[in-house]
Amino acid sequence: MKRGFTLIELLVVIAIIAILAAILFPVFAQAKAQAKAASALSNTKQLALACIMYENDVDDNFPLGTSWDAPATNPTGDELCFGGVVLGATCFNSWTWTTAPYVKNVGILGDPSGPANQSYFGLPLNVSAAFSPSFGFNYAFLSPINLSSPTISSVAATAADQPANTVMIASKWVQADTGATANVWFVGPIPGGMSQDAASESVECGSLQQNCFSDWGRGGGLNNPGVIDITTETEGAYTAGNAFRVAGNVTVGWVDGHAKRLGYNALAIGTNFNYSAASGAVGGNGNITVTHASQYLWTLTKDCSDFIYGPCFAP
Questions:
Q1: Cα(167)–Cα(173) distance, integer angstroms
Q2: Distance of alpha carbon 197 from alpha carbon 142, whole angstroms
Q3: What's 228's DSSP letter?
Q4: For the chain (length 315 residues), average pLDDT per consecutive 10?
Q5: CA dihedral in degrees (147, 149, 151, 157; nearest 10)?
Q6: Has residue 304 been placed in a domain?
């Protein structure tokens, strides 16, 4: 005679399933996070390679962090443009826009480990992503600003002493991290300055003759308080807006085209920066200086000769 499950047997099976689910769900979550991290690393590498292909076609020069022109030279209307008495009639685009022909996939401008991008001034998301990508360009050394002009100049890629140890792009905050909507933040005067929405800041940004996000070692907004408030380490509160989204690591694309992830202190090697995530203790207190230029990952020449802003001390 056939008989069904007893209540005890049914409860045992349910308990076993619950235990297995409790064991496996965290594993699934970790696997999902690692998949997103791998995708971000791949996106970073593809963007670095796009910059290298651009260099090959433009006399071996890095792309400009931000390009400026007049509306008359922008017949398609695909740049962001300003008008009015203060700014005059001018348009700008970012390094992501000028390297777009080598990418042809706006999806790689996003970091799946971070928040989704949002619309700029009502522009479609695929256009907005070019102006506020999840990855920023090392403009301070690869596309420096002349603040007196103001103009942005390009630098020869062959100037890098150690291309495998020089940051080109890095994962960064996006507008959704700040709570701001449809704002564009600039380093230096407008027009002519760098769009901060597409930039990664170097470690000694607190010593620059311009604004920078959060400052390494300080946290809580810009050097101009109240403009933007980045409050967590994940978004880049203590690292000038460079976002440490995956297990305390930032995704970096290097001048030679490879990509890898680095932690808080590793990205600031060669400086007096010291941060302890466990205790929340921050070293440097916003006064970061380069103590060993040969180790510093953001500068090109490793001997202080291209260190155009703050103090640098050769090893």
A1: 17
A2: 16
A3: -
A4: 69 83 70 79 93 92 86 55 55 86 86 80 76 90 82 88 94 80 72 84 68 59 49 77 84 94 87 63 58 88 76 70
A5: -70
A6: no
CA dihedral 71, 72, 73, 77 (to 10 degrees): 50
- Residue 162's domain comprises 7-282
Place of tokens 């390094």: 95
Q: Would 106 be classed as within a structural domain?
A: yes
Q: Is residue 51 part of a domain?
A: yes
Q: What is the largest CA-CA distance in the chain?
A: 95
Among residues 260, 258, 228, 229, which one has the least CA distance to residue 246?
Answer: 260
Number of structural domains in the chain: 1
Please tell me whether the overall predicted TM-score, pTM, comes out greater than 0.85 for this model. no
Q: Which residue type occupies 201?
A: E
For strands 135-137 and 167-171, give the pairing. antiparallel
Alpha-carbon 205 to chain mean position: 14
Residues 6+ apart with CB under 8 A from 104: none
How do residues 93-122 score in pLDDT, each as one tens digit? 889 988 988 988 888 998 888 887 777 767
The DSSP string of 13-76 is: HHHHHHHHHHHHHHHHHHHHHHHHHHHHHHHHHHHHHHHHHHHHHTTTBPPPSEEEE-GGG-TT
Residue 22: phi and psi, rounded to 5, are -65, -30
pLDDT of residue 229: 66
Decide if 227 contacts 220 (C-beta within 8 A): no
Q: Which residues contact 15 (CB under 8 A, 6 or more apart)?
A: none
311 φ, ψ (degrees, to nearest 5): -70, 145
The answer to whether residues 11 and 103 touch, using CB atoms and an 8 Å cutoff, is no
Asked if omega into 311 is within 30° of 0 (cis), the reply is: no
Dist CA 184 CA 209 (whole Å): 20
Helix (H, G, I), strand (E, B) or coil at 231: coil
> Within a domain: residue 12?
yes
Interval 126-139: pLDDT, tens: 777 888 899 999 98
